[in-house]
Amino acid sequence: MTDKQTVQAYADAWTQSIEAISELVTPLSEGEWNRPTECPGWSVRDVVSHVIGMELELLGDPRPIHTLPRDLRHVVDEFTRYCEVPVDKRRCHTAPEMTAELEYTIIRRSRALRGTRYEPTDEVRWPMGPYSREIPYHQLLRTRVFDVWTHEQDIRRALRAPGDLDSAAAGITRDYLVELLPRAVAKLAGAPAGSTVVFDVHGAQEFMTSVHVDESGRGSVDAMVPLAPAARFSMDWETYARLACGRISPSTADVKSEGDEVLAHRILDNFSVTP
């Protein structure tokens, strides 16, 4: 695909996933908005508030002026504090207020995506608090697809409404997370130079890939799968995504590992690659 076709594919995937969130939460009763999700410290309402807050910031709306309570245990650094402000601000909002704001945000953001003047490689601001920086426009859109799909899955699991594990947004998320595997294997887990680790993932997003660590200790994704890797993991796609996004503990995940047990444990302990 061309760069413009890629950007359009990201916009389409974002639209499908955020509209799925809207469809999931619109019929909820007031109490159902308070169901806890796997996203630490956040309810369904909080997850939706985060999605709204991020999209509004990308639209150029000012961030809310709000003082956070001091007893939020999941707020542990400047990044989580940054994310929490638009979330805590909406904790007193009613279900109709939440659904109305979400619907209006989707309308505004969709209009902005259709009318954008940005070229795929134009540098744009990525508003993420202490991680804020300039990134290419296409990269910003892909990151939004990843974030929205991940939170769609948070909501689905909280509501026991599985789905969209095979959507376009899921495929984009798969590729995004695979690109981060070398960081988990080589940098965080410290896999030895010359070693290769294999990941065999089945289910809605089926793939097999490996991470090879070169003599300088740098990891890279490799399509070649050796017969005797240092470690090999087998799991389904949903488990892979939940682990990579820090939603479940490796000790509770249904993962089969083979090879060097010490290395396998280190990799799983460092598998979460999201902030």
Automatic annotation (TrEMBL):
| InterPro entries in the record | DinB/YfiT-like, Maleyloyr_isom, MDMPI_C-term_domain, MDMPI_metal-binding
Q: Entry's SUPFAM superfamilies?
A: DinB/YfiT-like putative metalloenzymes (SSF109854)
Q: Does the keyword Isomerase apply?
A: yes
Q: Where is the Mycothiol-dependent maleylpyruvate isomerase metal-binding domain?
A: 15-156
Q: Which UniProt keywords apply?
A: Isomerase
Any Pfam family hit: MDMPI_C
Name of the molecule in the record: Maleylpyruvate isomerase family mycothiol-dependent enzyme
Q: Which organism is it from?
A: Streptacidiphilus fuscans
Query: Lineage, please?
Result: Bacteria, Bacillati, Actinomycetota, Actinomycetes, Kitasatosporales
